[in-house]
Design goal:
Layout (H helix, E strand, L loop, with lengths): L2 E6 L4 H13 L4 E5 L17 H6 L1 E3 L2 H5 L4 E5 L14 E2 H8 L5 E5 L8 H4 L4 E4 L11 H16 L11 H22 L4 H18 L4 H22 L1
Parallel strand pairs: 1-2, 1-6, 2-3, 4-6, 4-7, 5-7
Helix pairs in contact: 1-6, 4-6, 7-8, 7-9
Length: 240
Amino acid sequence: MPVRLILVGTQHAENLAAVLRSARAFGVEDVWLVQPSFTLGNVEGRIARRGEDLLERVRVTERLDDAIQDLDVLLAGSAKDAVGRNLLRDYLPLRDAVMRVKQAERVGFLFGREDTGLRDEELRLADVWYTIPTVPPQRALNLAHAVSITLYEYHVQTREAGRLLPRASRVERDVLYALIMRIVQEVNEQLGVRDLAARLRVQGLVWRRVLGTADLSDIDVRSLLGFFRDVEKLLTREKE
């Protein structure tokens, strides 16, 4: 199944060279850089000759949205500690995360900067958040090591995985997500919730994670759309 690597704010050309070597080993040919701190010319000479064709296909963009818009599911890796009730830090172990999305057609893995990782606004774009378990006090791995371990786990779990029903696309899940959030907003407005924006922010993260990890088929999504549309009609009728 096709996999895309998306590296945000990569700072060192040698790390990209190492990532491309790992990508080549696991058959990954779709690599995007978002606002890197170097040009691709800095990578030439740091990568074996058989990897040069992959370097030529690396795509560079200033906007993260460009790199993820056609994916079915996006997984974001991070090693930052959980703080309070921050749902963005409620990670799944890598193995569990891959297990939940391995039936998807177009999968993307999102990696952050070598020093600070991914920012909250970037994590919010993902469907699944994961971490690679390590032994304390060591938490963060080198970027290339994290990519290699991630690709290995995905390769092991998907090489023999068979598809049953077609998986729901990211676009289909986004339509369902938007409908659910309209209902969530309507319910909370009718209940008179004081801090509506905060409630919607938390509920939005929860529903994004639920839909991203549920491994929904297109039939599942159509059934859920029908149900939630009936709920929306009922709420509208009661409001009138």
